[in-house]
Amino acid sequence: MAMVILVWIVAVILALIALLVHMWREAHLHHIVSEEVEVPNLPSSFDGSKILYVSDIHKRMLKKNDLEHLRNQVDWVIIGGDVAEKGISWHIVRHNMSLLSYIAPAFTVYGNHDKRAGTVHLERIFRDTGVHLLQDSTAYLRKGESKLCLIGMDYRSRRGDSLLAELDTKDCKIAIVHDPLEALHLNAPVDLILSGHTHGGQLVIPGFGPVFLNKAYRSVSSGWFSLKKDDNDTEQEGKMLVSRGYGTNHLPFRLCCPAEMHMITLRMLSNKQP
């Protein structure tokens, strides 16, 4: 009997070790999800343009060998916030921002952990590495004589709708909003929103869902979502991507929720293509 119990204990310990190894690997995967998205109001010259989108890097260090081949393969790099966290080595952040801005012109917003880490240090790093911080501000991306507007909304900002109201209604608008719930509270139409913050729940049990994710976020934990308020909403045609993120928060583990970044190809609406 004692031997049977011992065998069971050893089996459980080995299973737990195997699970932890698997969770650590999920958290440290380098996985780029390639996808195309139809964007309302996208100028024809932007059709086929590529964005490398990465969010919630936290304290994970990007590897040069994983990303340097993307130089000249993407048009812009967009970073969805939380490039840092409290107590991080600033060397890691500087390395990550330098690598991303080397690939293509890079734009970012603040996430909640960035604010806690210290914006004075972050602003200096962004400036030194050439990453454009959009803090309740806009930038225009250009292809030939056409342009689209990139809007970066500060974390917990209440200026989103007023920022959008200042723009030409005919402009194609892409917004970076770290928190997807903030994005859903916008009233003005947006063509594409890039978000993160949730980590996809980070630890997800099949059949149950995210273990620690706040209930308010469960309906937008990760993936693509329509921005329509309801079935009768005819003004809003846009979509929102909520990334699972590339780093981790608190524990360096993921379960059924692997780390990801995104290669997004912008496409005109099918019914508007020539």
TrEMBL record:
Originating organism: Paenibacillus pabuli
Ranges for domain Calcineurin-like phosphoesterase: 50-200
Classification via SUPFAM superfamilies: Metallo-dependent phosphatases
InterPro entries: Calcineurin-like_PHP, Metallo-depent_PP-like, Metallophosphoesterase_sf
Biological classification of the source: Bacteria, Bacillati, Bacillota, Bacilli, Bacillales
Identification of the protein by name: MPP superfamily phosphohydrolase
